[in-house]
UniProtKB/TrEMBL annotation:
Alphabetical list of SUPFAM superfamilies matching this protein: Multidrug resistance efflux transporter EmrE
Name of the protein this chain belongs to: QacE family quaternary ammonium compound efflux SMR transporter
Sequence similarity: Belongs to the drug/metabolite transporter (DMT) superfamily. Small multidrug resistance (SMR) (TC 2.A.7.1) family.
Highest taxon, organism lineage: Bacteria
Sequence intervals crossing the membrane: 36-54, 61-82, 88-107
Organism: Massilia hydrophila
Membrane topology of the entry: Multi-pass membrane protein
Length: 113
């Protein structure tokens, strides 16, 4: 797998994780079968895709991107879909997560190892 393919795989892993986490809210403590099944399937698929990325990307880098982008996307979706408003410190923290992911991708030499 090439580096661009690993990033594409990581992007799909993030999307699957975000769908799974969004469904987790709807699963209502795993009492609703369809959202519960969506959660389990999406999480399993996300971890599978993440494992494929680890053939090329360093574990810490891949996990930082996967979790960081996932946190920002879930927070954004929760704001619009579930009305879960964020205060300014939370928004600033999310901005720092985005900055951290950008620094890793733009400046880290870890990706060449």
């Amino acid at each position: 797998m090439s580096l661009p393919q690993a990033y594409l795989c990581l992007a799909f892993a993030i999307v699957a994780e975000v769908i799974g986490t969004t469904a987790l809210k709807a699963a209502d403590g795993f009492t609703r079968p369809v959202p519960s099944l969506v959660t389990v399937v999406c999480y399993a698929f996300s971890f599978y895709l993440l494992s494929l990325c680890l053939k090329v990307l360093p574990t810490g880098i891949a996990y930082a991107i996967w979790s960081g982008v996932g946190i920002v996307l879930i927070s954004t979706i929760s704001w619009f879909v579930h009305g879960q408003r964020l205060d300014w410190p939370a928004i600033a923290g999310l901005g720092l997560i985005i900055a951290g992911v950008a620094v890793i991708n733009l400046f880290s030499k870890s990706l060449s190892h």
